[in-house]
Design a protein that fits this description.
Blueprint lengths: L1 H25 L7 H9 L5 H35 L11 H14 L5 H22 L7 H24 L3 H11 L10 H16 L1 H7 L3 H6 L4 H23 L5 H11 L5 H23 L10 H22 L1
């Protein structure tokens, strides 16, 4: 019965992924029918529809799916690491460090490759600061790590406010768009595919240990799990996944928080299922959100983070109510 239910859930997630990708490829100012879409995919022509599809919509759809998958996977790992249902990929200040790096690059007029690398460098700096402070006395606990992350995140927030208030009006809009999540300038390469695949494979390898760790560190240690080694691996893995997602799309909220909870409510509590399911649902969710962001008030575009928040807030409240009622 359980196997049948999980197989049905997998089928629904695969269908949702396909539907979200088709919806994204059909959405935009240049109209395409499903027949035209299939024709352009199978036999591209040098027309405006082909250019829009292959140069704009397909790369942006792939970027949205990869980013959503990375954030959802990082969210699952963070919730296991911190054993906190409110944990999300940004809770340890990674997005704040990335934001400071990106905004600093925008302030000096950098873009493209320089902007992405500045954001990634800022994220890694935040990881080093949080882990260094939390591990100051040779050992660290979940509580110390969480408190350190919150304090560092607040510090980055202060720096971000300083950058915004001292920047010219020409730069502020670009900065705000990046802070709220933006996929319009995103660029996904082979390294991003490999990282997502490595995160999934690595997670599946230690999935049994993740299941045990959710029951508590003492239980996990008594069953032979190397708790300290696993915690460090989880921390750096989640940090790397989050940092990569932030460099692609900026700060996109609620994906890593809501998606794991939704899947657990659907019965996917085993991490051998939760990890791949999270990638499918997280990727699909962000693809749909980005499609809405660029079509709701077309020709203007909304930051994708605004759309994920509008969808994520009521969804999380519904999940919270369902959990409490049980």
């Amino acid at each position: 019965m359980i196997a049948t239910r999980q197989l049905l859930l997998l089928g629904l997630l695969v269908l949702l992924t396909i539907a979200s990708i088709i919806f994204s490829l059909l959405s935009g100012s240049v109209e395409l029918t499903l027949g035209q879409l299939l024709s352009e995919l199978l036999q591209p022509r040098n027309e405006i529809q082909s250019q829009v599809l292959h140069e704009i919509r397909i790369p942006r759809t792939i970027a949205a799916f990869i980013t959503g998958g990375l954030l959802a996977l990082a969210g699952v790992i963070m919730q296991v690491l911190l054993r906190n249902p409110l944990a999300d990929p940004y809770i340890l200040g990674i997005s704040g460090g990335a934001a400071v790096g990106a905004l600093s690059a925008i302030l000096i007029g950098a873009s493209g490759w320089w902007l992405s690398n500045a954001a990634f460098a800022g994220a890694l700096m935040s990881v080093a600061i949080v882990f260094g402070i939390a591990n100051r006395f040779g050992s660290w606990s979940v509580t110390r790590l969480l408190l350190t992350g919150v304090v560092v995140s607040a510090g980055w927030g202060a720096v971000i406010n300083i950058l915004l208030t001292t920047s010219s009006s020409n730069n502020v809009q670009s900065m705000l768009f990046w802070l709220m999540g933006d996929l319009s300038q995103s660029d996904v390469g082979r390294i991003h595919y490999l990282l997502l695949a490595a995160g999934l494979i690595g997670g599946l390898i230690v999935s049994r240990s993740l299941n045990v760790l959710m029951r508590g560190e003492l239980v996990a240690a008594s069953l032979g799990v190397n708790v300290n080694g696993l915690r460090i691996a989880l921390y750096f893995s989640a940090s790397l996944l989050t940092a990569t997602a932030v460099t692609i799309a900026g700060s996109v909220g609620f994906v890593g928080l809501v998606i794991p909870h939704m899947l657990r409510l659907m019965g996917a509590r085993d991490h051998r299922l939760l990890l791949p399911y999270s990638i499918l649902l997280g990727g699909s969710f962000l693809v749909v959100a980005d499609s809405l962001a660029r079509t709701l008030i077309a020709p203007q575009q909304l930051p994708v983070g605004v759309v994920t928040a509008v969808i994520g807030v009521p969804t999380f409240l519904i999940i919270l109510r369902s959990t409490i009622s049980k």
